[in-house]
Amino acid sequence: MFSIWSDLTDGTELWSESWSNVQLSSGVFSVLLGSNGSPLDPAEFQNDPTLFVQLEIDGETLSPRQQLGSVPFAIVDERKNELQDLTFDGTNLGLTQSGVTVDLASSDNQDLSLSGNTLSLENDPTPVDLSSYLDNTDDQQLGLAGETLSLTNGGSVDLSTVLQNKLIVFVTSVGHDGNFGGLAGADAFCQSLADAVSLGGTFKAWLSDSTTSPADRFAHRSESY
Known about the structure:
Blueprint: E1 2-5, E2 13-17, H1 42-47, E3 52-57, E4 60-61, E5 66-67, H2 70-80, E6 86-89, E7 92-95, E8 101-103, E9 112-115, E10 118-121, E11 128-129, E12 142-145, E13 148-151, E14 156-158, H3 160-163, H4 183-196, H5 214-217
Antiparallel strand pairs: 1-2, 1-3, 3-4, 3-5, 6-7, 7-8, 9-10, 10-11, 12-13, 13-14
């Protein structure tokens, strides 16, 4: 009978497994603990850094117990060395194994960018360093294409629902005589200037005519522009 205890002499029995007909070779035996019907629980090694194994032969308990070395504790490291998956729920970006999420709810009027493992939003002075969340993974790499954030072998998430409502106002540096040919022409003029500097999105001129005003033509929000 093999058992694992929390103390050298007393303590609590945390695990046990029975073996029979163990073969000796020149007084030496070898068994793989946890492979004979009682699997080892990695949680036991995670919670207590000092554990001891006890051996009982034909009803006689051998003493003293032997302290476990580093090999059983590698079970815990093996669990941490799992691939992580990206998750996205509403505005929360997360990694499955880290249990940590990043709230992207304040991303209006900003563009998402990725440099190494640092995720940032335009005009936001506080970027998010994701490197600590990626520790102990199997060499996974973050990637950003447009508004899609991906993790090697960990899936991808579409962040467009967070970023799609950004609102930008700009003043043109190009003069015009005012003859736009109606609101549609003014909108086309603004759109061409925005496209020229790769602002992205749809832009309209902040103008009105005899029947329509910006209050009718624009989608208004309580957030700042």
